[in-house]
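User: I'm putting together notes for a lab meeting next week and I want to include a structural view of one of the chains we've been expressing. I don't have a solved structure, so I'd like a prediction I can at least talk through. The sequence is below, exactly as it appears in our construct file.
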Amino acid sequence: MTRPYLLFLYVLVSCLAVTCVRDYPSNAPYAPPVVNPPSGGLPGQQQPSAQKRLFLGNDKIRVGIDLNMGGAITYLAESGSSENMVNNPDLGRQIQTAIYGGPYPYTQNGKQPVEQWKYLGWNPVQAGDYFLHPARIVSYQQTDNQLYVKTVPLIWPLFDEPAECTFEHWIDIKDNTVHVRCRVVVNRSDTAHYDARTQETPCVYLNGPYDHMFTYTGLKPFTNDAVSEFTDRNVINRYATENWAALLNEKGRGVGLFKAREVRFRTAGFGQPHVGGEFDVSAGYINSEDFLVVDHNGEYEFEYTLIVGTLTDIRQFVYNQPRPPSGPDYVFVKDRQKWFYINTHDQGWPVQTELNVQWARDNVGNRDFRIAAPLTFWYAADVPKIYIQAAFKTQGTVARLSWRKAEEIDFMETPGRYIDFPIVGDGQFRTYEINTGQLSGWDGVISQISLTSPASQYNFEKGSTVRIRSVTSTKL
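Assistant: Thanks for the context. Below is the predicted structure for the 476-residue chain, given as structure tokens.
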């Protein structure tokens, strides 16, 4: 079997860097690069380690993690079937966690990244690195009901280089579902601020037959409206308004990925369509890819569910979960609530009771700054008012609330997409009430909101800050 090398696809979406996708182009030969070989050894990759799997099972499904692949999920099958659906030709596939941050390129201990991956930046991968070195297991535990594993991931483009962070995963099964909770703890020596990146939290790679890609991208979620199947095998972002995506085979069976409140998913197909096994390059891919500011000392948690079965099974599970909120409900008590920054930054981790953000541009010039909420789905009619609890410290007198519609790929600073509202810059907390229901352009579906300063206020930037306690659709 020819071992795959991996093609990095780096896409700018909404003027921000996004995650990579690992693929092997079928028309290219495998040629491992000569990068940082161990002293006295040979360059390039090595054979994967032997499997060391731990399993959970019931009368519906069987799931397994591999301690020689960083504790990533490397096995998922329906009960009674010997067919493993998870794709495992290298250490960049599997069902696993991968985190992305700056700088670009990233070096550590004198090691340089593989050329085609050098713009990944700081990229801890749960299973291991490009050279097939497995990540380190710190501890693990198996009970009748749960698998637990703590991992020191490896930096994907570097030769056998542990990342300055740990991943913890708790895995449970119930009926035809696998529930995963993950905790990421970062302890980097580099204390610089870097832009938010989209993450693989998680990525899901299934074998070639499971490359029929489905989700719901319409504007009537949770109404049993028709879903969409995607045949374009390129790496494409989907506005998944029911918080799930799925990979199925030609018989209509496979795996769905559900992540509460998340509407940003990716789909792709690699290699030859509809064929291939566990160690072949052909694969289907889905990913939940929320934006995240990765602090040098940050701690982050997320959870997701894998649903095994038909499209009906997957959607029924999703419909049985609590509905996402119908408007903004962000209260910054202990984290950023997935808010992130463009061309500015906050005071870093930990976040306690408020966001404390520089109300100015990191890089002065034509580039604006923005404090952005995560991508979402609201009907404008359900959000007639927005309340912002904030303390501005600035000589400026105006702030701007901007919004995006579902069909727009970025914020548009045009009439009908923003409102400038008066602020008091004395550093004291106030509740700013914005009557969105009376605004031109606040209609249909709202997919994202943000706060920024109009260009007319840029001469007041020096030393300006804003502290934000909440952004909600009801007054607190």
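A couple of points you could mention at the meeting. The chain has two domains: 12-319, 329-472. The first strand starts at residue 12 and ends at 13.

User: Perfect, that's what I needed.
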